[in-house]
Amino acid sequence: MVSTAETRVRPEKILLAPVTVSPTKPLTPTHVKYLLSLDMIQRATSAFATVEMAYHHAVYSGSSQVAGFWEYLDRCHPTLRADELSEEDIGRLYVARHQEEPVGFEALRPVVRRAESGWTHPVTDRLLSLWEEHYRTLGMLDPGLGRGRPDLLPVDDLIELLVSRDLCVDGRPLKAPVYLDGTAAGLALRPVLSAQGQPNYLLYLLRELVPIVFRYDLVVLAHDVELRADYRTVAHILERLGARVTRFEVPRVPLDGITRSARSGGWEGYTIGALREPLLSRYGPQAFRLGLRLYLVAGLGRTARQSFSAEQLHRWVRRAERLLQAPAGDTAQATAYLERLTGHRGYADPYRVATALLSRGDDVPVRGLLDIINGENEEQ
Questions:
Q1: Cα–Cα distance between 192 and 155 in angstroms, integer?
Q2: Radius of gyration over alpha carbons of the chain, in Å?
Q3: How far apart are CA 38 and CA 233, in angstroms?
């Protein structure tokens, strides 16, 4: 976690604004570590503050990652039966798409236009339905996966506002790109709209966040480590617009000693579908979801230097089974404990919460914390 605002005033209303996992690939241990970290932030922080999440896949459908995949599917696999595809089938198509040379924006433009009008490719609809099952199995909030579509600030209005605050260089009059300008804070210029009109995902992000950040006492930007430079720029812009901002980073999880993107493959056998059945049948859903949370968040830690191990996951699920035998707890006591644990951050750090559960300290209200972070009282 990296804080960009130093104050100890406890926020009462918090916006959790994570980068979304693009619905184009399977959920790997990297994605699940990230999603469960977000879920724990939301659950634990909601015990003492109002937390809202800005997580809408439709916002980013026009980005090159998503629209490029959809263009590939329509061009190379026009007869696909989306409802017959597994998560792994879709992942293999995603890998194949990235083995091709990327197409130019002129080829993407019709797909971007349809995406921005609200259309979703049937393959992504299918994948979101598969993910919804995973969300329910893992006891995560929002099993609908943010399928709504918020209002976005028009591109011209956003650029005009940022230019007026010296946060943007608008090259459109010269048929040049548009750049986010954080140079005053020592940050590099970042293109967000190409000379041909192709938008970057950061443009969509700011179109969603800029109109709403004033409603919140704190904005928590969550992202993976590879996006650090981009999100430092976003944090700078939002702060210059008057928001209090902090960032939360999650690393990628190595598989077989290699850290790589899902587009490169290598995730076969490591998806939730491949891992869950033997553990669910032996230990049940509560131990599985808690064990996976504790392993990915606390076991692999903030840096995730060790490779994901199915054997280690089994051990953590067994450990979770024992933790779940803790006697009934006091929710009020757990809430007070989470507030103390939060310190100056303003939100509950999932790593600190998970490691507290494992500390065996006499002052740790284990059962109360479990009821908050593991969805113990929710309908399956």
A1: 11
A2: 21
A3: 21
